[in-house]
Amino acid sequence: VQVVESGGGWVQPGGSLTLSCVVSGRFYDVADMAWYRQGEGSQRDLVALVSADYTTTYADFVKGRFTISRDNGKKRVLLEMTNLQPEDTAVYFCHAQGYGLDYDPDFFEWGQGTQVTVSW
């Protein structure tokens, strides 16, 4: 199972970015999909999560600014980020968990991360 993020980059304060994450490989289905972030010298924190039934959970520090969504057919999760601020600068990681196919084990996989930098 592979988890690959894209869409990071540099943006000025107040700007917007959308991150994308695709899960591929051999598996039965994907359950929860989530975005985490890790600033320099900081721990990795949950940003937002969307379950298979589209229930969403957000960290307080992004409520009203970020939106998580998923496309179950494409095994993809998006994170739309608006009104970005310098404190949002971090490496953003996608996490996916799901069910193995046949006798394969369930999976809990991280992507490699994508850098988001917010500055003038």
Q: What is the averaged pLDDT score?
A: 96
Overall geometric form? elongated
Tally of separate helices: 0
Q: What is the tally of beta strands?
A: 11
As an assembly, this protein is single chain
Largest sheet: 7 strands, mixed
Task: Offer a quick outline of the entry.
The chain is built from no helices and eleven strands. It is mainly β and 120 residues long. The strands form two sheets. Strands 2, 4, 5, 6, 9, 10 and 11 form a seven-stranded mixed beta sheet that branches. It has a four-stranded antiparallel beta sheet with strand order 1-3-8-7, with no helix packed on it.
Topology:
Elements: E1 2-6, E2 9-11, E3 17-24, E4 29-38, E5 44-50, E6 56-58, E7 66-71, E8 76-81, E9 90-99, E10 107-110, E11 114-118
Parallel strand pairs: 2-11
Antiparallel strand pairs: 1-3, 3-8, 4-5, 4-9, 5-6, 7-8, 9-10, 9-11
Output the keywords.
120 residues; mainly beta; 7-stranded mixed β-sheet; 4-stranded antiparallel β-sheet; 11 strands; elongated
Report on the architecture of this protein:
This protein has 120 residues and is mostly beta strands. Helices cover 0% and strands 56% of the residues. It contains no helices and eleven strands. The chain has strands spanning 2-6, 9-11, 17-24, 29-38, 44-50, 56-58, 66-71, 76-81, 90-99, 107-110, 114-118. Strands 2, 4, 5, 6, 9, 10 and 11 form a seven-stranded mixed beta sheet that branches. Strands 1-3-8-7 form a four-stranded antiparallel beta sheet, with no helix packed on it. The model has no long low-confidence stretch (mean pLDDT 96).
